[in-house]
Design a protein that fits this description.
single chain; 465 residues; mainly alpha; 16 helices
Amino acid sequence: MHSVQKQGTAPIGQLLLQYSLPAVAGFLANALYQFVDRVIVGRGVGTEGMAAVTSAYPLTMLAMGIGLLLGTGTGNMVSTHLGKGDKDAAEKVLGQSLRMGIGIGTALALVLCLFARPVLRMCGAQGEVLEMAVPYLRITAVGQIFMVLIISMGNILRTQGRPGLGLAFMVSGNLLNGLLCALGVYVLELGVSGAAWATFVALALNFAAILWFVQSRHSILRIRRRHLSADPALARAIVKLGMPVFLMQVLGTLTFLAANHGAGSLGGARGIAMVGVFNTISILLIYPALGVAQAMQPLVAFNRGAGNIERVRKLLGSSLAATTAIGAIAAGLVLAFPEPVASLFTRTDTELVAMVRDGLPWFMISIVLFGVQGTASHYFLAVHQPGKAGALLLGRQILAIPLFLVLPSPFGITGLYLVSAIADLPLAILAAWYLRKEWIALGATESDSGVDDESTESLANAEAA
C-alpha cells in the first residue's frame, strides 16, 4: 500500500524516473530487435535483403496488433478480477485469451503461408525482392503464432506485479534473436531465411519461458484445461476492450504499406529499404520519450483521482519538458552524424546511404514534435478524455496514408521525406492547443481554496468549456 501512496507524495522527478525506466528499457529492447535485424540483413545480405524484410514488416505489425488486441483486453479484465479477489474468473480470462491467441495466430499463419506471394505483392515486393521475401514470410508467419501469444500474455506478468520479469524475457529473447540472426546470415550464409529462422527460434523459446513461469509455483494464475473451452461472451468482452489499440495498429500497418508503395514506385528495392531504415531509426529515437509519456499516465490518473491537482499540473509540465528534451537531443545527435547513421545499414550501397542521409533532417522534425503529441495523448487517456486522445493517436496515420501515395508523384523522393513533417505538424499544433486549455483549467482549479469535490467539479466545467 505504501508503494501505491507514494504516487501522491514522492517528488515528481523521482516518480517519473522510477516509472519511466522499466517502460523505456522495454521499448528500447523492442526497438533494438528491429535495429539489429535490419543492420545485420542490410550489411550481410544487401539492399534487396533489407527490402525483403521491410516488405514483410506490415504483416508482423498485424500480428503484433492481434497480440495487443488480446493482451489489452485480457490484462484489463484480469486486473479487475484480481482486484475483486476472484482468481478463478481471472484464470478463465487467461484461458480464453490463450485459446483465442492460438486460434487467430494459427489462422493468420496459414493465410500468410498459403498466399505469401500475392500478399507480399500487396506490400510492395517485386522481382528479386519478392523471391527473397516469400521464404522469409513463410518462416516468420509460423513464428508469429508465438508473437501473438507473447504479447497477449505479457500483460499477465504485469498484472501480477512482475513487470521486471516480462522485461527480462523480452531482453533475453531479443539478444538471442540478434545472436542467431548473425549466425544465420554471416556464418551459415542463409540470407534472409537465416534471419527468419532466428526470429522463429527466439520467439518460440521466449513463449516457452513465459508459459513455464505462468505454470510454475511463482505465478498467481495458472492455465487450466477447464478454462480452455469456448466462451463467446467472454471472447467478445476481451476483443471489445482491446479493439481501440488494434485499430491503431491496423492504421499503422496501412501507413507502412502506403510508404512501401510510394517508395517502391520511385526507387524500387532501394526505396523500400529506405523506408525500413527510416522506420527503424524513428522507432529507436521515439521510444524513450514514449516510455516517459506512458509512465506519466498512471501517475496523473492517481493524483487526479485523489484531487491532487497541483501534482497533476507538475506531472504534465515535467513530462512535456522531458519528452521534448529527449526528442531534441536525439534529433540533434542524428543530424550531427547523418552519414555514419545512414552507413550503419549497408556496406556497399552508396546510393541508399545518400537517400537516407538527405531524408534524415525531414524525419527528425517528427522526432522533435513527438514530445508534445505523445505527452498530450497519454495525458488525455489518463484523465478519461478518449476523444482528444484518439484524435492525436490516430490523426497522424490518417493523414500520412494518402500523403505517401500522393506526394511522390509531383515531388519525387522529396515527397516521401515531406510526409512525416506534413502529417505531424498539424497534430503537434492540435496537441499544443489542447494542452494549453488543459493547463489553464488546471491552474484555475489549483488556485481555488482547497482541493475537494467542488474543485474537481470546477476542473470538469473548465475542461468542458
